[in-house]
Q: What sequence folds into this?
């Protein structure tokens, strides 16, 4: 008969498992937290303006010191003076109005065509088979090279200018909207079907919101392309517009007018881009996205 203190051979005495010591809450709370870097924080608007202001400063200094001759490029002071003169005579506002009208009409036509084609190709397989390959083929053709053909088709009045702008707008809008539709998450579409959404409900609540970011990117490209196409379009027998001023200035070697017209194109494009940015912030407020790191 074995005593209580003896152990049976072949068996090991039971071992006690001790729980790890609980962390000291006071020490955990006392750990130093990473501090944010202190220093002067420059507003983003100032940083965005630093590049253009720096270029203007370099341009002004090189012009005043004679490094950049006036025969090559007029100084910023001369460009501003010419802008004031053309504004007072009414030539510059009239040119901006004519160019803006052409860009607006061409953009609306191109956007309507691109939206119809992209929805048809993105939502339906038959539409993709019929449309997408053709659009890819036509995109490889330089749309600027179609100017002589447009003149043969539409003459030399306003129609070829508007058609060229519409064509330049169609491609970026089509491919970005089409890509946005086809990049919709298949799991979200399946979840929509499980909650009872029909075809129209899926398009409205799942597919189109998923395609909206790509559509807005395409809108930015399309607006910039519209002004780029207008530069070429207004070289074709124009009697009004910014391109008309540039053509006349080219004949008389007026670099100040040429630079002024280019600056007007740039400002108009920048304003359009700013408007699309504001629109994106409102329409995509529901979507959290990466906005960069740092200050």
A:
């Amino acid at each position: 008969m074995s005593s209580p203190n003896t152990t049976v051979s072949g068996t090991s005495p039971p071992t006690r498992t001790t729980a790890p010591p609980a962390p000291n809450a006071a020490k955990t709370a006392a750990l130093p937290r990473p501090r944010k870097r202190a220093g002067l924080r420059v507003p983003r608007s100032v940083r965005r303006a630093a590049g253009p202001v720096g270029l203007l400063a370099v341009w002004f200094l090189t012009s005043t010191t004679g490094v950049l001759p006036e025969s090559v490029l007029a100084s910023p002071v001369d460009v501003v003076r010419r802008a004031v003169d053309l504004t007072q005579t009414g030539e510059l506002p009239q040119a901006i109005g004519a160019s803006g009208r052409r860009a607006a009409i061409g953009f609306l036509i191109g956007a309507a065509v691109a939206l119809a084609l992209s929805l048809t190709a993105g939502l339906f397989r038959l539409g993709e088979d019929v449309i997408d390959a053709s659009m890819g083929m036509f995109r490889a053709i330089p749309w600027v090279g179609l100017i002589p053909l447009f003149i043969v088709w539409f003459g030399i009045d306003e129609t070829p200018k508007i058609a060229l702008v519409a064509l330049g707008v169609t491609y970026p809008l089509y491919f970005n909207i089409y890509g946005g539709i086809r990049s919709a998450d298949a799991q979200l579409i399946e979840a929509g079907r499980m909650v009872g959404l029909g075809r129209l409900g899926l398009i409205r609540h799942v597919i189109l919101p998923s395609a909206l970011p790509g559509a807005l990117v395409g809108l930015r490209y399309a607006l910039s392309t519209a002004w780029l196409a207008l530069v070429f379009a207004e070289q074709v027998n124009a009697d009004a517009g910014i391109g008309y001023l540039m053509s006349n200035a080219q004949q008389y070697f007026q670099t100040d007018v040429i630079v002024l017209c280019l600056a007007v194109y740039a400002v108009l494009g920048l304003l359009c881009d700013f408007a699309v940015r504001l629109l994106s912030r409102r329409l995509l407020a529901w979507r959290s996205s990466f906005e960069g790191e740092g200050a």
Summary: Confidence is low (pLDDT under 50) at residues 1-19, 25-31. The CA atoms of residues 37 and 94 lie 52 Å apart. The chain is about 70% helix and 0% strand.
